[in-house]
């Protein structure tokens, strides 16, 4: 349930935001005349910028404008936004179209959105310094540039109309794609102004609308991509169909780092529809006329693998290695204020704990896929990717082609969560596609997708705090141990001894005023590649910090809410959302036995979020989530519907991970394979989720990852409040939740991997290890 009576939800009616805080990005505009007949596209291919430009018979863009920029306006008055960020369910097509439409004075229904091609000159965003969708940066990075683009275009169109109507521009106004002269009642559609507008100078420092004058922004707009997704017309990467295309399924060495030794494909080649069998050093693919032929052909192969150095790797080995590195490794400083070591030694009371987090798969609904055609003309790639430029460049390098010979056709993504920040499927796909002459679509099965993911790293934290005589913290210390994501992601690796900020984000900077802080990181890379996961560093660190805050409140004999508020005098926005969440959740009201409420608070991605989760824990240890209350201060809520949807989806994603998810290893192989053992919340398990938005005039913050960050700590704190059991290892397991004799506190370490939710499944896994 959402507080839809909130003024912030109904309409934002505020004073103008400070220009000082607006993200500065290059003003990039592009107009093209889209004349001539509609192009015919390959089945399953969405119209692209390249195709739109090809339709322009004159080849003439606005003088002084960069071709391929944000905007196209056609003579028929149709308007196209070339979206700099890719849509993967986060609603960015809608919000970015609203930013443009608001300043261009057109309706949202008048804007068509298509994905931008690889072009860092035009579509590089100022936060991540590249053409990247991730880190909850899309709105923050384009809030200024897209509004400036729309406003500049509107001003140029009005100037063109002034010339045609022979009236001063000051007497004209724009409305729904037309310039209107109220004095005479004349109006000119944008489409008829394109030729004259191209001769206007590009305005500098064009004034933007005051938020009190907004028509679209601040309203709960419906998603522009929903109708196509509902009626089946939306084309994801996995839906692409190219003439003469074949489909391949892939088997990869089950042991990480293993190689392919031998293939007997006799039975596979006899199956109807099987076209070919392709080999790589560590994988084999069966090509079919359709997916079923490829799948059954893959199952018919007799494969022999050389397991390599990781044949004996287990979860116990990986956990032991993290624990050893935590105690004896060389730390890299993340943050230091004051003298935490001395303050800890002199504290009236010392509290210590160890927290563990598992490897995590992304498990997006759309498994990894790419359609690749290597030909004499170069290489075409149809894919849904968060990094189109990196995808192009990686393929060009693998094929030894100039970058301009590689064409990336980006599509909707059926869930990213950070998985599609990498191009490993393209590296594999190019190596396979170059062996054939036809377009080859590579589709990973669900099992391949989970077992060969680039996992979120596992972490091992030793955290401690010193309390004064009143229970207030005088020192906070967090020793983080885990792999470097940048070490896996960057082609050149990441230097030893240099801080990977992702490892400490959310711990180095907390909402609280600790007088003495020490946060450091010991790098311990696992023998497997890792990557970012939804919520990135804060998903790990906020779980540790917020769980430990409840432990400190308990040690001080204080209410967890009051304990936090006492440390937020210098952080009014954080205090505001915390108070709002507490009020709306009924914090302090009596609950039945074995019920409890848990708090989580964090400042991440430019937003402030407080969560209160209410649970019931049954006698056997089953957790039943009763209600989630979330208060959000994300600055200006440009589309409140999207904010609410992201909180709801992120919370379900995070709670699934907190309860059920963890990647474990046995004999060098990933144990989990599908949603039966890498479980997600089911519909009947999802609690009511109330979202309350704080009305704000601050710059927009990110939202896609905030709720995922909140989920695990709020749940862990609620469980502790309900039954007095403190769980410090994720995911939370039934055996861990069942109260111990005497109601003792519990800090569980699972040497064979994380606790599993299902008891029978846990027994099976333990036996296999």
Nutshell version of this structure?
This protein is of the alpha+beta class and 769 residues long. Helices cover 30% and strands 21% of the residues. The N terminus and C terminus are likely disordered.
- Tell me the name of the CATH class of the largest domain: Alpha Beta
The radius of gyration computed from the alpha-carbon positions, rounded to a whole number of angstroms, is: 28 Å
N-end to C-end Cα span: 43 Å
Stated plainly, the CATH topology of the largest domain is called Aldehyde Oxidoreductase, domain 4
Overview of this protein structure:
This protein has 769 residues and is an alpha+beta fold. The protein has three domains: 222 residues, Aldehyde oxidase/xanthine dehydrogenase, molybdopterin binding domain (Aldehyde Oxidoreductase, domain 4, 2-Layer Sandwich); 149 residues, Aldehyde Oxidoreductase, domain 4 (2-Layer Sandwich); 360 residues, Aldehyde Oxidoreductase, domain 4 (2-Layer Sandwich), CATH 3.30.365.10. 30% of the residues lie in helices and 21% in strands. It contains 22 helices and 26 strands. The strands form seven sheets. Strands 9-10-7-17-14-15-16 form a seven-stranded mixed sheet. Helix 16 packs parallel to helix 20. The N terminus and C terminus are likely disordered.
């Amino acid at each position: 349930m959402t507080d839809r009576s909130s003024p912030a939800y109904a309409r934002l009616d505020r004073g103008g935001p400070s220009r000082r805080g607006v993200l500065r990005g290059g003003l990039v505009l592009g107009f093209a005349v889209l004349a001539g007949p509609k192009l015919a596209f390959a089945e399953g291919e969405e119209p692209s910028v390249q195709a739109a430009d090809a339709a322009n018979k004159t080849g003439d863009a606005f003088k002084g404008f960069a071709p391929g920029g944000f905007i196209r306006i056609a003579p028929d008055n149709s308007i196209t936004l070339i979206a700099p960020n890719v849509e993967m369910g986060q609603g960015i097509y809608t919000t970015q179209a609203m930013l443009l439409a608001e300043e261009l004075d057109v309706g949202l229904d008048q804007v068509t959105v298509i994905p931008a091609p690889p072009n860092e000159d035009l579509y590089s965003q100022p936060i991540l310094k590249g053409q990247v969708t991730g880190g909850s940066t899309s709105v923050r990075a384009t809030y200024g540039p897209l509004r400036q683009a729309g406003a500049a275009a509107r001003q140029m169109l009005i100037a063109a109309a002034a010339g045609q109507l022979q009236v001063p521009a000051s007497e004209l106004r724009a409305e729904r794609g037309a310039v209107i002269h109220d004095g005479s009642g004349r109006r000119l559609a944008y489409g008829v102004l394109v030729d004259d507008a191209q001769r206007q100078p590009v305005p500098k420092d064009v004034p933007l609308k005051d938020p009190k004058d907004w028509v679209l922004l601040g309203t709960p707009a419906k998603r522009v991509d929903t109708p196509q997704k509902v009626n089946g017309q939306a084309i994801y990467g996995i839906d692409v169909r190219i003439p003469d295309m074949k489909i391949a399924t892939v088997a990869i060495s089950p042991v990480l780092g293993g190689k392919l030794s031998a293939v007997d494909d006799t039975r596979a080649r006899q199956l109807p529809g099987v076209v070919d069998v392709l080999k790589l050093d560590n994988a084999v693919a069966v090509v079919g006329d359709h997916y079923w032929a490829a799948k059954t052909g893959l199952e018919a192969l007799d494969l022999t693998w050389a397991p390599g150095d990781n044949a004996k790797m287990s979860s116990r080995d990986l956990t032991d290695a993290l624990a050893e590195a935590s105690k004896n490794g060389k730390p890299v400083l993340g943050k230091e204020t004051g003298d935490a070591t001395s303050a800890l030694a002199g504290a009236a009371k010392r509290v210590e704990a160890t927290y563990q987090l598992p490897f995590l798969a992304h498990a997006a609904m759309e498994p990894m896929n790419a359609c690749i055609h290597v030909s004499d003309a170069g290489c075409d790639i149809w894919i849904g990717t968060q990094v189109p430029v990196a995808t192009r460049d990686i393929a060009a390098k693998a094929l030894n082609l100039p970058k301009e010979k590689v064409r990336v056709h980006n599509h909707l993504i059926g869930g990213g969560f950070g998985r599609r920040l990498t191009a490993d499927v393209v590296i594999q796909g190019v190596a396979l596609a170059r062996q054939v002459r036809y377009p080859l679509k590579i589709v990973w099965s669900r099992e391949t997708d989970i077992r060969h993911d680039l996992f979120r790293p596992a972490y091992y934290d030793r955290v401690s705090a010193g309390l004064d005589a009143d229970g207030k913290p005088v020192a906070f210390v967090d020793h983080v141990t885990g792999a470097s994501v940048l070490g896996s992601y960057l082609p050149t690796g990441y230097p030893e001894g240099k801080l990977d900020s992702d490892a400490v984000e959310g711990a180095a900077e907390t909402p609280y005023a600790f007088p003495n802080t020490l946060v450091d990181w010991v790098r311990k890379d696992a023998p497997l590649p890792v990557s970012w996961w939804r919520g990135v560093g804060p998903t790990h660190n906020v779980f540790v910090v917020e769980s430990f805050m409840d432990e400190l409140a308990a040690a001080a004999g204080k209410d967890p809410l009051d304990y936090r508020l006492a440390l937020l005098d210098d952080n009014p926005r954080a205090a505001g959302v915390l108070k709002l969440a507490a009020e709306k959740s009924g914090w302090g009201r009596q609950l039945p036995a074995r019920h409890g409420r848990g708090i989580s608070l964090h400042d991440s991605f430019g937003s402030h979020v407080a969560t209160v989760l209410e649970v019931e824990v049954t006698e056997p240890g089953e957790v039943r989530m009763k209600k989630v209350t979330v208060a959000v201060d994300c600055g200006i809520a440009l589309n409140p519907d999207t904010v609410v949807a992201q909180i709801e989806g992120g919370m379900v994603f995070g709670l699934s991970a907190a309860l059920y998810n963890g990647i474990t290893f046995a004999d060098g192989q990933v144990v989990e394979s599908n949603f039966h053992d890498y479980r997600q919340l089911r519909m009947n398990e999802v609690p009511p989720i109330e979202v309350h938005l704080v009305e704000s005039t601050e710059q927009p913050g990110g939202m896609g990852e905030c709720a995922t960050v909140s989920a695990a700590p709020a749940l862990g704190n609620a469980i502790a409040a309900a039954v007095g059991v403190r769980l410090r290892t994720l995911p939370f397991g039934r055996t861990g939740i069942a109260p111990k004799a005497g109601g003792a506190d519990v800090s569980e370490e699972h040497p064979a991997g994380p606790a599993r939710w299902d008891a029978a499944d846990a027994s099976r896994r333990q036996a296999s290890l």
